[in-house]
Amino acid sequence: MGKTLELAAIMKEDAVRPEHTGGKKWEILHGDTLRLVNAFEPGVFDAVITDPPYASGGTKQNERNRMTNQKYSSMKQGNALPDFDGDNKDQRSWMHWMAEWLYDVRKACKSGAPICLFIDWRQYPSITDALQWAGWIWRGTAVWDKGNSRPQKGRFRQQAEYIVWGSNGAMPISRPVSCLPGVFRYGNPQNRIHVTEKPLQLMRDVVQICESGGLILDPFAGAGTTVLAAVQEGYQAVGIEVTDAYYKLGTDRIRYALEEANQERGEG
User: Fold this and answer.
1) Which of 18, 85, 175, 217 could form a disulfide with 31 if both were Cys (CB 3.0 to 4.6 A apart)?
2) What's the domain of life for this entry (predicted)?
3) What is the 3-state secondary structure (H, E, C) of 208-265?
4) What does residue 63 show for φ and ψ, rounded to 5 degrees?
């Protein structure tokens, strides 16, 4: 694909092109992942790295059914960030939905492509089941240590989230990728634009599981952090985002950050 990412090179000829925004090495598609992943040509992606909706935020169904700001943010209503879609499923529906898109997206990945999925402790068992049901090999779990969390007397702090990872078939040790840590220690980002946004440096570290110069897919682009991190680390990246507000916020953020970096390097 050279230095320019062309949708025509990765999408089936008869596929309907969704609304999309992008640049030299990146594209964000606006639409539903379940529908869009089937539009990709087989074997085009070198890695999948994503932070899907957890459908978590409570131990009871009425707690999970709350809007995402109510579940994951303490911001007052006037300052609240936009809610995002797809987070109100019960556990069985969520696992079925995860398995479905994971099965379809595997077809669009090269043999040996790694996959990294962020998740919390409540949905950890279900996501590992969905990953394996979809035909991926589950290879382990890395930890994101957020450092800060609400203390609870007589209980362990819930200060970690997890990165369940695996591969599309065999994953040779000889891949030209350096040794990666199993624990990443970064606090939650300040001035975030998404309710569950991950730190940019965390994602710059995680994308390095992909071989140099590869094409990374993020089926739940959100604030665009994974796509931005991938481009900053020298990869190409495609994101999918269904929520209107985050499609705009994410693409604007990526474009602004890359333009700013180009200006600092004197590239216009």
Assistant:
1) 18
2) Bacteria
3) HHCCCCCEEEECCCCCCHHHHHHHHCCCEEEEEECCHHHHHHHHHHHHHHHHHHHHHC
4) -75, -40
Cα distances from 192 to residues 73, 222, 225, in angstroms, run 11, 11, 10
Domain boundaries, the chain: 7-264
Separation CA 102–CA 115 (nearest Å): 10
DSSP category for residue 121: T
Strand 19-22 versus strand 26-30 pairing type: antiparallel
- For residues 62 and 151, give the distance between their C-alpha atoms in angstroms, rounded to a whole number: 24
CATH homologous superfamily for 7-264? Answer: Vaccinia Virus protein VP39 (3.40.50.150)
In this predicted model, what pLDDT tens digit does every residue of 73-129 receive, in sequence order? 555 556 566 765 666 778 889 999 999 999 999 999 999 999 999 999 999 999 999
pTM: 0.87
18 CB-side CA count, 13 A:
23
Closest of 215, 210, 206 to residue 177, by C-alpha: 210
CA 37 – CA 97 distance, rounded (Å): 13
The phi and psi torsions of 200 (rounded to 5 degrees) equal -60, -45
Is residue 69 pLDDT above 70, yes or no? no
CA distances from 242 to 116, 214, 231, 239 (A): 20, 24, 21, 10
Three-state DSSP at 151 gives coil
